[in-house]
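Q: Convert this sequence to structure tokens.
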Amino acid sequence: MNDAHYNRMARVLHWLIALLLLAQLAFGWWLGDIARDTPARGYYVNLHKSVGLLLGLLILARIAWRLRHGAPALPDFVPHWQQKLAAASHYLLYLLMLIVPVTGYLASNFSKHGVKFFNVLVLPPLGSDDKQLYALFNQTHKASAPLLLILVVLHVAAALMHGLRRDGIFSRIWQRSS
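A:
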């Protein structure tokens, strides 16, 4: 990518995923407060699963776009170690953004509840009710979500730091090039 800014599609995907991801993380946390074996829990868990599926597809689209179009290079004034740290943190963000929805979806596929897409369409399961596979995927889902949240907080903190410095890094994803 030659421009110092991200293109329009990259910006739209970034901000759409950012908003949905933060909402989904909060929604997932809130689900813990709903009593098990109640109709309300089933309804809201299926909404969480449905948004998670859509979010997972958007993340795949974002990764495909990024692989095809790349990212603008960081300016020369950014120290090499910070460039490496930024690259590593982005890699981990993408990895966790995949792990969280995939493990949630897989856990659902190995439970008796499955996925009822937006509480309307029952998606066919990938397997039968398997408590061990469900536990593996569900625990991975529950363990990776807080790690994703930590990385998101660090990402936002770094973005705010660059925004306050007005060094041009934050504006690469915030606005189009002039």
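The CA atoms of residues 10 and 66 lie 7 Å apart.
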